[in-house]
Amino acid sequence: VIAMVRPRAGGFCYDADEKEIMFAEAKNLLENGADGLAFGFLNADGGIDLENTRKMVELIHRHRGTAVFHRAIDVTPDIDAAVQMLIDLGVDRVLTSGQKAKALNGAGVIAELQEIYGDRIQILPGSGINAGNAAKILEKTGVSQLHASCRGYRPDPTTMGEDVSYAYLPAPHEGDYDVADAEAVRALCRAADTAAAA
User: Fold this and answer.
1) Which of 43, 93, 125, 143 is most deeply buried (CB count within 10 A of its CB)?
2) C-alpha to C-alpha distance for 40 and 11, rounded to whole angstroms
């Protein structure tokens, strides 16, 4: 179980209070069974925040966990320099869409990262991956693992009243909440297994 440490939506340049929260949450998660943490710290210029990334990796590794730098990498100005920094800091895995909105569109960059750095850090494609494109992404990138939300939707009849709405999803799902869909997970696993066997 890799838990994400992310104090808010938006970007990844955090203030001192947010960083304090992240480290407190990270310690709590690791002490209560998380096998690793996904996190990302960037400076205002989009470069890797070396000090806090180092501190987080050391905390995770002290608990024998896996350190995963998440898709904050996708807004760095120089992804090669960023990945090299993560390797030097001891990060175990990097989650990336190849600096595109969806991993399929960034497959070329992901393939390059796998070719150049894959023997020193695990490259994990993520964003928009599903059973329909999993085989193509595995083939194009040469990676051995995928990250996917396998999102599904369930309705909640109390989401909207006559004059009040608690909807957070756009139409046509404004009356729903999102979940991991078990059948989507099974379909993704089947597609990945078929691709691996080919």
Assistant:
1) 125
2) 10
196: left (phi over 0), alpha (psi -120 to 50) or beta: alpha
Global pTM reads 0.93
How far are the Cα atoms of 26, 27, 32, 95, 121 from residue 36, in angstroms, in the given order?
9, 11, 11, 13, 15
**Could you state, in order of their start, the residue ranges of all structural domains in the chain?**
1-96
Q: Please choose, from the candidates 53, 121, 137, 111, the residue with its C-alpha nearest in 3D space to the C-alpha of residue 83.
A: 121
Class of domain 1-96: alpha beta
pLDDT for 109-159, tens place per residue?
999 999 999 999 999 999 999 999 999 999 999 999 999 999 999 999 999
Query: Which tokens belong to 108?
Result: 């070329």
> What letter would DSSP give residue 75?
G
CB-based contact 73:103 (threshold 8 Å):
no
For residue 149, give Cα distances in angstroms to 5, 78, 127, 146. 17, 27, 8, 10
* CA of residue 54 relative to chain centroid, distance: 18
In the prediction, which pLDDT does 136 show? 96
Per-residue tokens: 17: 């209070």
